[in-house]
Write a structure and sequence with these properties.
mainly beta, about 300 residues, nickel insertion, 7-stranded mixed β-sheet
């Protein structure tokens, strides 16, 4: 088994050649793989005495969590885990890896404490590798706060999900254009995120890639990409308790009256659920739409609406 302090353990394999062109030596700051640059969080959670609890935890800066809290009166068994990152955000040369194993019958919500800032990269790039495993009958909600890419930033993220057929998974992400007040709307160099979902036997269920490179092919402002919108959000809902057509109808109904957001809902391949893509002009509107879709799906599949996450 690869050691957790090994750079290879924290770095995604088969990185795009386009990203590797940015792979120079870091000249100003800590080198790639230096202490504090290879963040690791390895968690396992399981049902114990009526509550989901952490049964394995390993963490290394800059990633860490505090103990789970239980804040949903509708699902008192669900553990809410807030992922935190030391420092102000992600910088060049960071290689972060998150592994979360949800044992059969567990119920877990994972989010971040605040938005994820991605700082400028002069010499290199940053990566995040997120591996999620959801056992039989388990529930996982993975809904981090938005990503904010600064001018000149370069981020590659790969999320790999393995889920049992009867598991319930709600997985989302939101990308903001950057620090608009600093005239940095879509001023990043590259934002590339991949999402892959598998069954527990390793069969690919679906894959989704979002690649944005301002000023190049894939410019966010292109008509075929984001067009006149600045913010993009994606929500994947996987379950077997509701047919994909019914799940699509549920999500469309939930989003029908949401203002200031363009949303589309479609079935996922392999009959495993539904996907929502949302475009908007403001963070407030898109995050409200994301919460509406999450709460609608959650009410039907988990048995309780979206709770107050107490983020202020």
């Amino acid at each position: 088994m690869t050691r957790r302090d090994d750079l290879a353990w924290c770095t995604p394999t088969e990185l795009p050649e386009e990203l590797l062109t940015f792979g120079g030596t870091v000249r100003d700051g800590l080198a790639v793989g230096a202490p504090g640059k290879t963040g690791v969080l390895d968690l396992a959670l399981a049902q114990r005495a009526g509550r989901t609890k952490v049964i394995r935890q390993y963490q290394r800066a800059p990633l860490h969590i505090y103990r789970p809290i239980y804040l949903d009166p509708g699902r008192p068994d669900m553990a809410f885990v807030f992922l935190q990152q030391q420092g102000d955000g992600i910088v060049q040369g960071d290689r972060c890896r998150v592994d979360i194993d949800c044992e059969p019958g567990s119920a877990v919500h994972v989010t971040t404490q605040a938005s994820t800032k991605v700082f400028a990269a002069r010499d290199n790039f940053a990566t995040q590798l997120i591996n999620l495993r959801v056992g039989a009958g388990a529930v996982l909600e993975y809904l981090p706060d938005p990503v904010v890419p600064f001018r000149g930033s370069r981020l590659f993220q790969r999320t790999s999900l393995s889920a049992a057929e009867d598991a319930t998974v709600i997985l989302g992400e939101i990308l903001l254009p950057g620090r608009v007040a600093h005239d940095e709307a879509h001023a990043y160099d590259l934002y590339w995120t991949e999402t892959e979902a598998y069954d527990l036997d390793g069969k690919l269920l679906f894959a989704d890639t979002l690649r944005l490179r301002p000023g190049q092919v894939g410019d966010p402002r292109s008509p075929g990409v984001l067009g006149g919108y600045d913010i993009v959000a994606t929500l994947f809902v996987m379950c077997s308790r509701m047919s994909p057509p019914d799940l699509v109808a549920l999500l469309r109904d939930a989003l029908a009256e949401v203002p200031d957001v363009l949303a589309g809902v479609s079935e996922l391949p392999a009959g495993c659920g539904a996907a929502v893509r949302m475009l908007g002009h403001t963070s407030t509107a898109v995050q409200a739409a994301m919460r509406t879709a999450w709460s609608g799906a959650r009410t039907s599949l988990v048995g309780a609406p979206a709770p107050d996450l107490r983020k202020g």
